[in-house]
Specification:
It is globular, with a radius of gyration of 23 Å. Among the domains are: 56 residues, no CATH class; 78 residues, no CATH class. The chain is mostly helical. It has a two-stranded antiparallel sheet with strand order 1-2. It starts with 9 loop residues before the first helix and ends in a 29-residue tail after the last helix. Helices cover 50% and strands 3% of the residues.
Length: 307
């Protein structure tokens, strides 16, 4: 095992970047940014500026012509705005899914989430070595969220009903992951109406909720988004509006397209925030816009057009 890397001051970090071929036009400003954001957070933005060895398939510790600290900062600022907009757009989707699922489950039984026998077959799948079912794992997370909640309506139900929340109230204490797992376990008679409202089939919506939960977590933890490659791919419907994202299902542009689609289908907004933001991408020849995964002509596609 290699020894830990040696500590470097901010000035030494800048010198190392310059030694590897990065242009740093304003070293004092670069040092100030390193103090704010940390070398390794910013390294994700200069990583695609490094030379690539096609023989070994690895990036080299040498930068390509055009790499600059100023471009790193511009990419970071763009990505920061992307995280902010994504968080806001996803919040509307999360609230809508909460409302739809709470209503669909409540129509069957107000306490269906506490009656696993009324849920679908996935609720009874064994998912741990200890023999815990998917529902049992979910219930522990839900109960923990309920105990941690400081919402007035939760206190009211604890005082009057012993803390037993009907599903239309219970969904309000669930985070995205807990909500999406509940949707995955719901019976078809509840899954289908929610999916219909989203213009999807139930398995498709379930995969979208999982994909967007990953995106939401990255945004919430200030992780880089703009050129990220995702491990899972959402299931597409045959809707021609989604064709713009096909072929790049594991790139962030596809995740953003899911947001655009759901905002249109659920009538959550005019869906103009993301298209407007993408036009502000810092054009450059080192880390081009295509790293996002958007195809040529994306702005003319139905979900992304301003028309």
């Amino acid at each position: 095992m290699a020894d830990a890397k040696q500590f470097k001051t901010y000035t030494q970090q800048i010198a190392l970047l310059e030694q590897r071929g990065m242009t740093v036009e304003d070293p004092p400003s670069a040092v100030a940014l390193l103090r704010q954001l940390n070398y390794y957070r910013l390294s994700g933005y200069w990583h695609p500026m490094r030379r690539f060895d096609s023989g070994t398939g690895q990036s080299l510790d040498v930068f390509r012509p055009g790499a600059s600290f100023e471009l790193v900062h511009q990419l970071y600022l763009f990505d920061e705005q992307l995280r902010n907009v994504v968080s806001g757009e996803l919040a509307r989707i999360e609230l809508a899914v909460r409302a739809l699922l709470g209503h669909a489950l409540g129509a069957i039984d107000p306490f269906l989430h506490l009656k696993p026998e009324l849920l679908g077959a996935p609720a009874r799948q064994v998912v741990s070595k200890r023999g815990d079912t998917r529902y049992e794992v979910w219930l522990k997370k839900y109960e923990a969220a309920l105990r941690a909640s400081r919402e007035d309506f939760v206190a009211h139900h604890k005082k009057k009903y012993g803390g037993k929340l009907p599903i239309w109230a219970a969904v309000e204490v669930m985070d995205w992951g807990t909500l999406s797992h509940l949707y995955g376990m719901a019976p078809g008679c509840a899954r289908n109406p929610v999916a219909d409202a989203c213009g999807l089939r139930a398995p498709q919506l379930e995969s979208w909720l999982k994909s967007l939960n990953i995106l939401r977590n990255y945004a919430a933890h200030h992780a880089r988004l703009f050129n990220r490659v995702f491990d899972i791919k959402p299931r597409f419907s045959s809707d021609p509006r989604l064709a713009v994202a096909k072929g790049s299902e594991n790139r962030v542009f596809t995740q953003l397209t899911l947001i655009q689609y759901l905002h249109h289908e659920l009538k959550l907004s005019a869906a103009t925030s993301l298209p407007a933001l993408l036009t502000t991408y810092p054009e450059n020849g080192v880390v081009p816009f295509k790293r996002i995964g958007a195809p040529e002509g994306w702005q003319q596609s139905a979900l992304w057009s301003a028309r």
